[in-house]
Amino acid sequence: xxxxxxxxxxxxxxxxxxxxxxxxxxxxxxxxxxxxxxxxxxxxxxxxxxxxxxxxxxxxxxxxxxxxxxxxxxxxxxxxxxxxx
Length: 85
Prior knowledge:
2 helices; mainly alpha
């Protein structure tokens, strides 16, 4: 039977040596990031006008995404057809 106490002592010594050899550096200082702020509300316009403007901006953004998606699909289709030739 092996001497488990000697093995345990050797393991403890190795672990102690390892922990002494590891150097812990202080963490980097954290930087504060400002959150994105909502644009200021124009009190001269009504809430309905603001909602209309936001909806119009959203629709324009959606149209841009649709056009980009169509362009990407068309380019992939052309690439696939070209690779078959």
